[in-house]
Design goal:
Layout: E1 26-28, H1 51-60, H2 65-72, E2 73-78, E3 83-88, E4 100-101, E5 104-105, H3 113-117, E6 120-125, E7 134-139, E8 153-155, H4 156-162, H5 166-171, H6 173-184, H7 194-205, H8 207-214, H9 217-222, H10 227-231, H11 236-252, H12 261-296
Antiparallel strand pairs: 1-8, 2-3, 4-5, 6-7
The chain binds iron/sulfur cluster (SF4) (2 copies).
One iron/sulfur cluster (SF4) binds near residues 31, 35 and 38.
């Protein structure tokens, strides 16, 4: 139920076994009420949330995403890559999950992806020669978890089915791809701007604020979105998919959302200004380099 890793490769310090598997790998595992370790994994949590986890939980609790983030999560920086992530916040002055009860998980039908996957860890990855990302899995074996001793065998694919993971993985695929793309684009010069971090955070995790943003004048001025497409954004799930598309355009220059003519002109000018600035900086650096030995004499 609890999991110590999500889409990141946690080797070598975690209890994740240092071996990667495909979905047809057979595992021995069962978790059920009455098992000796019941709730043990929910007593000390380290759970990263996906954007879709947040949609499910805020709906379950009948609150906004902004309220959910404030009361039930804290932000963190994924892998020092300047990618904003969100984790479940434990109970005050403790390590247990706020949703844990003596009877088990109080949000069971809407529990997060990481809780569903446990004791499997999902590792999304993309090889350099591959266009699409693919999933690989690892197994988490923690001493306190007795589920590995239960006499039940099934494949990881069967386990994913049983745990209802398909809609969760499908709805957050665009988010995982953004993270992979950000990682594979390598270290940027300096830190990513505060604005791009905030934008990523809002678009991925705070869907209600993102919806407000899409109704703002500034958004209208820049993007040319047909009314019938806007109407579909009443659905959180559809808006979330648009938010990933929006981020691909803003952060990686993908051109899938039509911009107004004025905005295109402004953007062209910005690109040209940036190119000029970089050229000037490079020229200044070259000049500095050539002057360097003279200064040292
Ligand atoms: S959300 Fe539920 S399953 Fe996940 S850690 Fe909390 S109580 Fe456990
Ligand atoms: S078997 Fe493992 S996953 Fe299930 S309650 Fe025990 S510690 Fe948690």
């Amino acid at each position: 139920m609890n999991q110590t890793s999500d889409n990141t490769n946690p080797y070598p310090t975690s209890p994740v076994m240092p071996e990667m598997f495909e979905g047809d790998k057979v595992i021995q595992f069962s978790c059920h009420k009455g098992i000796g370790c019941f709730n043990a994994c929910c007593k000390s949590i380290d759970i990263s949330l996906t954007p879709y986890d947040i949609l499910r939980l805020k709906k379950r609790l009948s609150i906004t995403s902004t309220e959910f983030l404030e009361h039930f999560t804290f932000p963190f920086e994924m892998e020092m890559n300047g990618i904003a992530g969100v984790k479940l916040k434990p109970v005050e002055n403790g390590t247990a999950c706020q949703f844990m009860t003596n009877e088990g998980c109080s949000v069971y039908e809407d529990r997060p992806t990481a809780c569903r996957y446990y004791p499997v860890a999902l590792l999304s990855m993309r090889r350099q020669d591959e266009y699409v990302d693919r999933n690989a899995y690892a197994l988490v074996k923690e001493d306190h978890c007795l589920g590995h001793l239960e006499p039940r065998s099934l494949t990881i694919d069967e386990y994913r089915n049983e745990q209802g993971l398909e809609p969760f993985d499908e709805a957050s695929r665009g988010w995982r791809q953004l993270i992979l793309k950000k990682k594979s684009s390598g270290p940027t010069i300096g830190k990513p701007s505060k604005r791009s971090l905030q934008l990523f955070f809002m678009a991925c995790y705070d869907i209600d604020r993102f919806r407000e943003f899409t109704t703002s004048d500034s958004f209208h001025t820049i993007y040319d979105i047909p009314d019938d497409e806007r109407a579909t954004w009443a659905s959180d799930e559809i808006l979330l998919q648009f938010s990933f598309r929006f981020l691909r355009q803003v952060l990686f220059g993908e051109d899938s959302i039509k911009m107004s003519e004025d905005a295109v002109l402004v953007r062209r000018k910005q690109v040209e200004d940036t190119r000029m600035r970089l050229e000037l900086e490079a020229a200044a650096l070259r000049a500095q380099h050539e002057d360097g030995p003279l200064d040292e004499e």
